[in-house]
Amino acid sequence: MTESVHSHIDIALVHFPVYNKSGEIVTSSVTTLDVHDISRIGRTFNVGMFYVVTPLETQQKLVHRLMDHWLEGYGSEYNPTRKQALLNTRVVNVLDDAVADITQRRGERPRTIIPDAKRFPQSRSYREVREALQDDHPYLLVFGTGWGLEKGLVERADIVLAPIEGLNGYNHLPVRAAIAIILDRLLGLGMGAE
Amino acid sequence: MTESVHSHIDIALVHFPVYNKSGEIVTSSVTTLDVHDISRIGRTFNVGMFYVVTPLETQQKLVHRLMDHWLEGYGSEYNPTRKQALLNTRVVNVLDDAVADITQRRGERPRTIIPDAKRFPQSRSYREVREALQDDHPYLLVFGTGWGLEKGLVERADIVLAPIEGLNGYNHLPVRAAIAIILDRLLGLGMGAE
Hints:
seven-stranded parallel sheet; 8 helices; Alpha/beta knot; homodimer; two-stranded antiparallel sheet; 194 residues; alpha/beta
């Protein structure tokens, strides 16, 4: 595989609008660990940009402080693999800002792919989406936090992807684990690797 | 799939003996987040037991305190999915204690499977190991922390598995992300799922 093989694919982690436990639409808190883990996972699978989506200024500042520390400060020398991972991380207010940024950078609006437990007319299997990603159109993989993305966002997705199913009725993967599995299924070297 | 489909597979996260950045053999610190995430990931893929391996008493106490909080204390009501995940988590001194516990519980010594970047005579592909796991012999999947498991441990593994390869020379996945991907490759419902 060449260096730029997945550079037409970006990912976003959305903290608003998402559901809470009671089904209300809320802004979830940014977990700094998610920012680190998902940056590393994205870098491993060679995706382009990782957008952290939150409209809350205090939360945006938190992510910027973390990035400054690891990109410019003491952390950049202490842990250079963390720096490398964060180089392609950006903070935006809303998902549309990520779409606009990609459209400007790539000259084409990205198709959005969102995992969701419900079935939609645009639901596709992992195999189908893996094949779709072989073209060089820009794609944006969108992940929710909390109890899931507001359903209007999902309905407007170009492609809806099945969630990772637990084998025993237990479906409580941390979002960072779900993202790792989904990127491996869609972009990884696959089962034959040894 | 039935409820007990992977109950003949256990997992272990080893904090000693592992390498540090300088290649010395050390005991790495337990990350409580790893305990939570890997418990959830194991539960999702319906594995049997999750062994946290550390010989340090202070670290063992840390894990037990965490488990008490979520299994018995306030946490058990606040977050029952976390409780469910931790029910099959155990702390042991050394990897051999996990092997002995499994041998006693299952009446047969488990075959050990260890991911490692180097090739060994017993190296196998994901596809081969996924097929091997279809029998009902007990297996123990062993994961290292820090800069990887001491090589004597890997040499004694029954099966060595390829690591998750980055697509761009970047190989710094968090261990919890690597475990999620490996369990999905070996035990997941696979690409056709939709």
